[in-house]
Amino acid sequence: MLSSLANFVLFAALVLTSVLVTGMYRKLKGFEAMYKSYGTALEASSAALSQAHAALTGLNAEANGTLASLGDRIEQAKELIAELDRRKAS
Asked: How far is CA 82 from CA 26, 49, 72, 90, in A?
């Protein structure tokens, strides 16, 4: 009788362990799916940051060109003002 009671306790522990392991396995599969989606999100973020970098680099180049052009135009305007002042004085 004692032996069958011990067998029953061991069998119940085995069933409980199996149920817990199955639950942990399902959680692990859930974590694996979350990990994959996290990796996909990181790849998308990396691609977006690369595109933003390329856009900012292009914008910077355009801004430098505009700044140089504006500087030239300011110099031309200063020369024209000086010429007008000379004509006005004479």
From this structure: 83, 49, 15, 12
DSSP letter assigned to residue 1: -
Can you tell me the distance from the alpha carbon of 19 to that of 30, in angstroms, rounded to the nearest whole number?
17
CA neighbours within 13 Å on the CB side: how many for 54?
Answer: 6
**Three-state DSSP class for residue 84:** helix
pTM of the model as a whole: 0.53
Measured CA to CA in angstroms, residue 22 lies from 2, 5, 15, 61 at distances of 30, 26, 11, 59
pLDDT at res. 90: 76
CA distances from 83 to 57, 86, 90 (A): 39, 5, 11
